[in-house]
User: Fold these one by one.
Assistant:
Number 1:
Amino acid sequence: MKIPHHDNNPLKRNYDTLAEYKQIEELPDTNPLAIINSNCEVIYCNNSFKNSFNKNEGEVFSDINSDADLVHMVQGFIKSHYSSFHFDLQLGYNFQNEAQNYSVDVERIYIAQSEYFVLRFTSIEERIKLEDRLNTIHNAIEFGNVPVIITNESGEIIYLTKSIERIINKTIEEVYKQFFTEAFAGLMREDEIQKASDAFSTKKEWTKVIAHFDEKGSLSYKEFKLNPIYRGADKPDNYIITANDITHYLLKNQIVKESEKKLRLIINNISDLLLILKAEDGTFLFENANNNFCEVFSIHKSSSLNENIDKVLDEKFRSEVLNAINILHTDSTLFVEFESLRNENFYKGKITYMDYYITHERFYIVSLADVTTHKNYEYQLKKSIYKEKHLNKLKTAFLENMSHEIRTPFNAISGYSEIIEDCLQSNDFETISEFMISVREVLNRVTNLFGNIVEVSQIESDELVLEKVILNCNQVLRSVYSKKLAFAQQTGIEFITSLSDEELLVEVDWIKLEKIVMSLVENSLKYTAHGQIQITSELIDGRAEIAIIDTGDGMNPEEVKFLLEPFSQEEVGYTRKYQGAGLGLTIAYKLTKILGGTFEVLSEKGTGTKITLSFPLAEINQ
């Protein structure tokens, strides 16, 4: 028995009337079929069902003999929320005294908004016979090495033989349910593919000859032909595409036709860049090339025929070809592959040779396949690997910082709690009051840490919501200055402002801009042991520029980009000099970019840092 498929939406099909259902399904009488209601009453059944189960419409579907209780199975399905159910069973002997093995499908439907259930019985013996026939046909095609593509009536590929997979260099998984021309992508030019598509649309005959290099490097020619398959109707049920090897035929015709004309027919059927050279007295002559090759290499074909390649090909490509020919004979191999870069496109080249025994001439065939997309994919893959390594590094930094930043305040709280407990026992409430201030500071630090983590997460996932207003940025700078002045004075740092007399109106999110400036000032306070911190603003070239300048430790210029990433500090691990999760600069940098500003860091180790923010002035309609 097979496990049923559960569907969250059981209303898979709705019908207005039973007659509509019969018309849509177009059910044959070869297999038993019945429609029952929730009381297992038969409201419709075909002749096969009547003969197999001796039941008619209006009778209750209850006393059928089977190895599994069929009625019990159906009733269980009716009470469930499944849309369909499938199982196998053996029915008792029918009126012909024959045991029947069936595959049963139950489906929930709605007719005139009432719920009914469709029972379909498929003879397992008939199904096995059909599968045997299909397997026989499949094996005959596959092991007979017959190149075949089969499509449905819409031209979508539903079957490929292994032999044709080798020709088109694609598997059934890659082209299944795609239009048949997709199988020839890379083998034919776009205009040739369009002709095939047009022939299908107009139901005209389509044939095409394609040159093919097998895995041994041998060149062969396949003629593809599209044929409709009719089963009595005017409209084809399927289409079949066959590939006939016409290599022998083409080679035989070379005896009759002129070599130049024949070669031109060959290369016109190859979508890759194709060049044909003829060996003559130790030199190589330009014999022919397809239009794609001539276009890419800017060659005028008619004036280049029979010319030495020294006059036709540029030095770089000529060197690549001659080197491949040398390897071809030195290693006694059938073909040689090489890579070539041309006009920012990457090409994978392959060279082989063919001896024309009639005139005892040797021709070298050079094909170039454009692999630019593949190269770009490799480049993107390398970038992804680099990004993955960088993310792993950030993860390690995050774990190290979070372990330190969370454990430190909670260790402090644990220590404060022990001291407070002792103070309670000695009624020293004054000390408790002092320690509560420290506890609040620790908790504020943890709260800010988690707030910063959430903000970075919102920024990275593009979930940040902005509420932009037009404001004078000097108001924000004065607000930050007033909030941090007392702390700066306690640490002995000179904290000053030098703000523009003009109104610097910018359109930003007030809270986000204040957080940016606050983060930068706090960063300066953290890394400035003595000296000065200054906040400035001025109007430069129609932009409001804000600068936070300190005389602190400074940073190495090459480390600035690294420090703009989350959870980054110049020192890492538990032994670093300064506290913090390394999020201040990151949040300030990313928020500035989101608000449409620029963020510039000028710093030198031991001399201080200047961070400049620049925002365009807001446009105010008069």
Number 2:
Amino acid sequence: MLDVRVDKQGLAFLAPPGGGAAGGCATHAFKTRSNEPAYAALPPSNGVQVNQWGKSIQLVEDRDKLAGQSLKINNSAAISTNPDRYKQHGFHFTADNCIACHACEAACSEKNDLPAHISFRSVGYVEGGSYPDFRRVNISMACNHCDDPVCLKGCPTRAYTKFAEYGAVLQDPDICFGCGYCTWVCPYNAPQLDPIKGQVSKCNMCVDRLEVGLKPACVSACLAGALDFGVVETAPANRVQTKLAIPGFPDPEITHPNIRFQQTRELPREMHRTDSMPLTYVKKQEAGRIDYHPQVANQPLERQWNLNKLSSREDPIVIFTLITQAVVGAFLMLFLAPLAGLEVLSFAAHPVVHAALLAGLFALETFALVLSTAHLGKPHRFYRAFYNLRYSPVSREIASIAVFYNAMGLYTLLLAVPGLFSLQTFTGWLAVVAGPVALYAMNRIYRIKARPFWDHWQVLTSFYGSMLTLGSLTVAMVYAAVLTAQGQSFADLLAVAACPMALGLALESWGLIAHARELNRRGGEAAASHLQQRTTFGKTYLLRNIGLALSIASVAALGTVRPDGYTGVAAWAFAAALIVATAFIGRALFYVLVIPTTMPGAFFWRNKGFEDHARETGLARMPQVGVLPDAH
């Protein structure tokens, strides 16, 4: 666990317990050479007190509170005498100078002993114009040690710490259990999930070098003087700009990153990515300032299936979310419907069926939870998901699902115990409240600014819609089969159950229509996701929409006609298969269509298109390519 050292600004400045490494990241006490070049030395601050976001650069009001405390790098008690030690530091990148030699990448990888498929720093680029007036802007990017580190807030295990020393955001891989949520919320590709080790790691600002007065390894290795480092808002020598963004850089409003740019050369109106992301950056002048805004690149509208690409690392989460929503909805129907007068679903009317269905729901949710745990890089550390209830939506989701799961299980057990009606009622109502709350918490996980395709209220309508549709469908089909086997009619029950089913399907359809319109209105990565939805997965997207329309029509028709007997069971079974298949296709699309507000890659590096090509052609079997053969 981490102890609060200074709580001046909320999340910031948590310190590890004495004797441990600084966040587990700076693993070696750095020893300087006798001939360290002058350009590798940290420069002094220019005296600016407040950064461009209006936040104090001095991270500790009373410096004496931390004076004499060591970062315990490699258990060393050494303490830096740098007068700027408690000021926010950051990178400065002069795009005009970068020649894309990748020396910064190599130095970083060598110092941190990284495998080929992991890179804390990477160099991508955007380009524009036409021959002979062709321009290219290279972008070297690592962790920006933000003022508002969304990785720190999102991490359920509290593996991240923002230190008062240099303002470094450090991450402890030994605490991480490999959920990868920080890789979702970060706009800069800074946290790196290693599927082999099952954990995340990232740039640690080379705090061991900072402690001895040296710049980070990547900066010291830069051949062209493009990459520099120091107290934020302190421009390096011979630099005239400390801009917050350049073409291709994600919206700095998301995290208030501690990186500044200089880019003085005139650029074309449009700059294009060379990776597979369908984005271009267009020059706009607003409030006297020229910025480049992302827009969808012009592409032919050619619909494809790409059913094989529906599979992703998130396949277990597809199943987990759908099962959880179905189980919550089914329990709500079993508990609330008898209270509303639908006696056929009460325990008294069919005690064996009622209890068996509840037990089945409990077993199904158990399977879903095991599946979600297996999705982690280190499943045996699943209990750490509860560490960050204050800030992490992942922690809140797991906690609320745990309350629902245990309340439902206890309610099921108490059905067999006479004389405990009050306790049974309490646990039932607790599950009724906790279930929808858990789905709301699940929805909050996906409201991520760095993933505009998800950041819409449609996520909530989809989750609650699935709860109503799949939950009611599950209960109705079980009882329809049982009642038919007993020679009883189920027509009235299915007619009632058709109402929440239709409501759920309509709710999801309404959200999807509003979502598509909003994606186009927003532009940028949101519209690019929608373009991919209509092209790369265009036929699959159309199939899902047709399936949704047919599902609504089937439920409405069957609820009106009220078929009974084995013919009715067959008709409803067909409708159920259609509904479930449509739900799985829609949820799989939900995960694979996301285009994050990420840094541009190169022709082959950090390029999803190249990664797919490498796996298809066998290049990924060569470790030096930096692409793992298994995409999952």
Number 3:
Amino acid sequence: MMRQFLISVALLLILIACNNKKHKVPGEKGGDGEDGEQKEYTINTSINPNNACNNLFLDSSTLSDFFTNDSVSDDIADQMRAFYYARNFEFAWFAPDGITEQGREFWNLNSYEVSSLKDSSFFLKALNKRMPDITTADSMSITPGDKSIIKTELMLSEAFMKFMTKDGKQTSTDDLMKYVPAKKEDIMQSANEVLSDQDGTQNEDAKKAFGLLKEQLKKYYDIAKKGGWQSIAYAHKKLKKGSSSALLPLIKKRLQITGELWQTDTTIVFNDMLDSAVKSFQAGLGYTTDGIITDSLIKDMNIPVQNRIAQLLVNINRARWMPEYTSGRLIVANIPEYALHVYENKQKAFDMNVVVGKEGSGTVIFTGNLTEIVFSPYWNIPPSIVRKEIKPKMDEDPGYLQKEGMEVTGESNGLPIVRQLPGPKNSLGRVKFLFHNSYNIYFHDTPAKNLFNKDKRAYSHGCIRLADPVKMANYLLQDNQLWTPGKIDSAMNNTKEKYVSLKNAVPVIITYYTAWVDETGRLNLRDDIYNHDAAAAAKMFTGQ
């Protein structure tokens, strides 16, 4: 009986080993080693449609066809083959619903480096023709047999391999897979792997952001291991310094766990120590630091620790794609932060609050070059806004256009072409800043100054409104002696539109970070206003 049992156990272990075994496949193009033997590549058969991040798979023969038809170098072909074998031929840059976050992040980083560093060695011109349509599409439905998408997928991977080796460095397949995950994992398992990793980021700016977030991940991982924090009931009233409530001991315990409150306090009194802790918690969430506890703030306190860990992991993945800040000027706008940051020679010059696109007409994540300032601009109103907002008001009130300083300049497909004249009612305000892109997004002034008093500022149709456009205009033109502050003010209050070209283009990066560590060492967490975190988490983690 014991002998039969041992045989059964042995057979079971063999079966498990066979199911997990990595099959070795001879290389094709670029497959000859120095000794004349063919190279071999390991297929990771543990990745399947049930646990794949993107759940689209290539036919293995497409790799060989691509290498031959596109004359891919042997070195790049070797790297691509190892990369796709490690993914069990799962797509890296596309999922059934369109381009992935990693696809967008790589394309933005690639475009930034090409335009800022003037390095085109890893840039494929054919991709530049394909990507605008893909990245601007409202929605996509992709099948594994879509030849155009397959071509784009492999071209992106070729560019990725060139990008990762542009400085003569060789990045291992394991490190490449960290940039472009292939397999869903448990959140805590994924956190443990990141914490155990020695990091594989490409530049010092990415390393710094990555490392700071990793420190916070360790803190929240340890909190989760100890059981997290207790959910707090809503107060249904505002709590502030001097008040008392039976909820305050729980709130104090919650803030003590994450470090805003430094001492143990079990009293029911809202004291100075709690006031300071609440303000610190509010600052980390981007709220006005008034020290008042509302039900909305309690809702933020109640977000489970595992959700915060997932948020940190998603943003750690984004940090891998952070570009290196070059010398000269750079503008970085972070959508969930409702702010932009201006850098000069890698040093912060100033920050500015902004209004971004509301959900449904969200500001797109991309890279561009700011080249022109337009004073007293016309607003050429997009057809979608004319159809949904302007035309119904025109039909209701014949004098609407005149009241709003607008005029009809023509007609297209049965819809009037409408523009708003320069002036105090112009929705672009007195100036706009152009960084040419496929999304028709730019910075601009606004007459609706009251929106900057709000903590959450997603109200625009997609463009980014600046809290202090005068400061931006003066900053960008400070090296142009012809444009004094007085002349800028005059141009901004004119009835005629005026274009001014910058002597040197300024790179603009539009980002989407809902978690980051600022210069003071504070962890900042923001709402996932466009559900990008949720979409990324659904692809990265099990149980989402």
Number 4:
Amino acid sequence: MLTALILLLQVSQIVEPYTFREDQGQTTKVVLKNGLTVILREQQAVPLISITTYVKAGYFDEDDRISGISHVIEHMFFKGTSKRPVGGIARETQALGGYLNAYTYYDRTVYHTEVPAENMKKALEIQADALWNSAYDANELKQEIEVVLQENNRKLDNPAAVASEKLYATAFQEHRMKRWRIGTPEGLRALTRDDIVGYVKKYYQPSNIILSIAGSMDSEETIAEVVKLYGGAPSLDDQAIERDAGSSEPQQTAIRYSWQRGPIEQNHVAIGFHGPGVLSDDARALEVLAAILSEGRASILNQYVRDEKGLITSGSAGLTAFRDLGYFEIDFETENPIDAQIAVLAEIENLKKNGVTKEQLARAKALIAQNRYHQLETVDGLAEDAAHYESLGDWKKSLSYLTSIQNVSIDDVARVAKKYLVFENFSAFEYLPEAVTRNYSEAQYRAAVLDKVPAALEPRTVQELPIAAEIPEAGDGLTADLVKPIAKRSLLRGPDVYIIEDHRLPLVSFGLFYPGGRLYESARNAGITELMLRSAIRGTKRFNSEDIARRLENAGTRIQVVNEADFFGYVVDGLSGRMDRALEILMDVLQQPAFLEDDIEKEKVLQIARIKKLRENNFAYPVSLFMQTLFGDHAYARPAIGTEAGLESITREDLQAWFKANQRPLVPTIVIVGDTNGTGLVAPLADVLTNEDLHDREIKSLPAPNFKNDRKETVETVPRQQTALVYGFPGAARSGNDRYALVVLENIVSGLGGRFFDAIRDKQGLAYTVRTENSFLSKSGAIYTYIAFSPDNEAKVKESLEKEMERLRKDGVTADEVKKSIAYSIGGHELGMQTRLGNVLEYARAIYGGDGIQGVMNYSRAIRSVTADQVKKAAQTYLDPALLRTAIVRGKKN
């Protein structure tokens, strides 16, 4: 009797902290006594854990005086607690092999960390400490607000982000969605610690937080740990949180239009319509409509407005939706904004008038399913997905999402288009280059655009192709034996095939690659490999561009061009059920590309637009400029998309010759990861992939870059809010002996908790972004640090960075730093290998980079063998002031 009583007491001790528990499949939900909701999703096949803290408060919950405070709190969350100093949270998490990040959105603030599964308990303790005990130090707050303002300046230098938020400012007249999300400099600088503490006290209550954990764990042990760390936090208010909701938005009854000129190269246009809340059936129909408009090369925007009419160079559509409101947005880049808007709106009117085809509907659903499954590939994706749906009322809504998409009918799509996509509900924002001189009023815009839409409608008859099968169901992902180790197979007189079977989700990534490509390009034909790859999928002897796109996407797949420094090719990625049909199309592209003049010219226009887009990117462009400065005349200096001058000189004959010399006769390498059985996907293609005329190509004999002992600097001045500095040196080849020491060095100095980050951002608040990266290639490498900051901080940033580098060369690193970096390097590698595409590309890089697949398989062991002496020697060897190369894109505020 006594034994039974003791057992009963033990059970009651376990159950007592809960007010609710629910178990379904791989997911467990409990609600603690203090109101905290906890969701666990087991995923035993990956040795990782993601911990997501989902706070149901964001920009919508801020009155105008404290606008931006949610984002400031996000920044302060990891700045120190009552028992951890500034930087301590980041350093301790890094030592666990973990990764920290956070973001703020209109209705939420989300913090997440991913760590190796064996370090879950310690990571939970760190996260709980940050949640309940953040110090919100007044001095740190003042400094961090300046960092937030640097982030804001970075956003102002992003044309697409400016266009989207300016659209909201145009479309919303009362609702808080009209505000610039981050807030104003004046408002942010006026925030006090009392403001921060008051907001946290109100919204960071257990009842307003969801803790979501996904990965390899024992659910019962994890729940016990959560109860210990989170269950003691008191609920600060027994009553429901009284939200400061702000004004609701009245119904729009007439068009709204605005414009702005800025230091950009392309016209960026954002148009949109008010829509329903996220939980409505109409929201699902609008999501399908958005996919019909812009998902894939066969979508309406890409097929008709971009490829057929040449009026846009890229475009996207989507529904941004919350509980009580939604907004349907279409964004595009164009050389001709007036004609492009007429064409886009004409396609919408045509859809309203004539509906969509069964093929379009099925294709959109298949691509939505593919996107959905890709979201669930990572433990972070699983954790945030569960938290998001729980915030909308029930995590199980996640399980029925694809079913609700599948239930959308042709009539539903037409109905929501007629209901929401009407001119009375329409707003537009044009972000124009400074050279554009027109100045339209709303009336002039209506006359120039909307009044001309009816005449732009074109009757269109399309012969429908076979449609994709029903959306496949995903497995429960519980068992590790759903994933098998990589296996190598060889085809006689054909390619080596590397296969990783992963049956957790109905997805496959099929990569087919060739050596060289850009390595054989010159300044005269820079960009020819990229142009060849993209022109080839515009047409073959059997199929035109539209046929190729439709047949691929009808099978629930997409084709992705891969053009890296040492190899090139394609990845066909998508639903596993019809991958065999997609690969038949790929084989046709590989064997018989047509290279028609018209297709080549259209693709040149798009490639030149990508070159302009690169120049607008305040990270990618400075890095590209650094590579040019570092590698000089070598092929590694040139970006994959080439140069405008190089592209203009390339002829059809050049492309045909390049294809015949650099792709058609070469033996490719195939890497397959996903829901497939052995060589099942390759066997039917054996005749195409094997040929006595094929031969191998070794790129080892190609010359390596020659670096002279002289410092070089490239500077460009642009009208931007921020200056971007890339400060770097020649690095190691992928197969070099110093590669792993350089990885450990990178993770000692870079990111949250890193030396450079601490010195420049945490201690001085001089920059928002401080990151160090290695580029390991077959013939050489690079190690560089990227920093973005206010133009007036340039001298201080350089001084701080050079001081830290000199300290590294002189004093080296500590054993403790190496230990923590080793854990972080291994953890980061595991995180990157969660996705099928990530695996495909990493193995391809290993094969063509010289270290082979064993380099991937032995990565952790090699990293663990790195010593502090090796890191110091690597710093002295590679951070050599005599070999310094810098690229500066210097901002100059208007």
